[in-house]
Each structure stands twice: as C-alpha cells, then as structure tokens.
Amino acid sequence: MFSRCTRRLASSASALVKKQRFYKEVSVVTESAAAGPPQYKIALDGRIIKTQLGRPLQMSSEPLAIAIAEEWAAQEKDIEQGHMRLSGLAMTAIDNPTNMTKESITAMIMEYLATDTVLFFAPENQALMEAQKEHWAPLIDSANQDMNTQLQPALDFVAEPVSAECRRKFESWLMSYDFWALTGLQYAVQSSKSVLIPHGMIRHRVGAREAVELALLEQRVQMKQWGEVRIAIEFVLVT
Description:
Structural class: alpha+beta
Order of helices and strands: HEEEEEHEHHHHHHHHH
Number of helices: 11
Distance between the termini: 65 Å
Number of strands: 6
Shape: globular
C-alpha cells in the first residue's frame, strides 16, 4: 500500500516537471495512402511523434500538420505543453480517450448555444450594455444572416433567445463538419463560452485576436470600471 502511494506521488511530481527540448529538427513527413488522401506526420529528428496511446501523430490536412510542426519548432529550452494547443487537440482526436462521436460532440456544443455569452446583455450596467451592443450585436446579426435564424439578445436569464428552429439549423451546421473539426470547435466553444464567437471565426467575420476580446468583453469593461473606482477612492484619500 505504502509503495503504491509512493509511486503515485512520484508520478504526480514528475508530471509537474517540464520536459527539456530533446530534438533539433522538426519536419512534416508525407505518406501516400492506397485509398484516400495522403497522410501527414510530424517527426522530431526523423522520428514520428506518437500519442499517449502509441499512435502516430498524423492527419490528412497539410496546413494543420505544418501548424503543429511549428508548435514543436517554437519550443526553446523547455517544452511548454500549454502552448501546444493544436498538438493536444490532434492527439485527442486520434486517441479519442472518451469515445466521442460526431453526434456526442455536437450535443455538447449545442448545450452552450442556449446560454451563449453573446446572447445575454446586461441592461443594469450601462457601460457594459453599450459595449455589448457595439461588439456583440454585429456578431448576432451576422450569425442570423449566415444561418437564416432570428436570434435575439436576452435582457435577463429567464428569456430563451434560441428557438427550436434555430437549434435545428445550428445542429445541422455542426453535423456538416468532420470529427477532427468538431473536436477543435468544441474546445473553442468551451473556452469562449459561446457558439457564436467560433462561428464568426469560421465565417471569417472576426479574427482570432478579436474573438478573444469578444469572449473577454464583460471582464474588460468591469476591470475598467473597477479601476476607475479605485483611482477615485485613492484621489479622495490623498486630498
């Protein structure tokens, strides 16, 4: 019993230690398939990277393979796994440790649509409401235009801004993507607490940096307000 606990503690401690970069060159290896598109594998010093389950890190998208190779090439003395999101998502798609399917991923994403951050405005905070109208309303309008829906921002948490018809259209849109794309989309939705923000990126309505700012809009406005209050308090104390 004691030895098992010791091994577990040692294993946990080793997981916290950063791995040093052990390779010099990163390359993308192209392999032709007998049937279907060619496969692109990422290699370190000529050796193919393996997933946790021992499967080769390979994909059918050359741009994705190049982007993942760039993640590995960008590592310096230590390997910062937290900076290698594409690699992690690709390995998750390959190993599929939770046995997800297109249908199950779509269902998880759809759960976020009903409570989408972008669909809930805050009338009790004038500054925030103005920022939401300026930055979120165009995103809602573009989604309605692209999806032929009638999404409307809610002014409280009692309202339901997404109708059954809207849900069906978004579900059909999600199911048009393959398993790999849905794996990445699920991560984007969970990170932004929104379906409409990733949708805007996919439709080239917003860029990556703008998407981050849209997801953090409420925090940005509140930080600005609290900052102004703090300055006012300090000014009164000094005078």
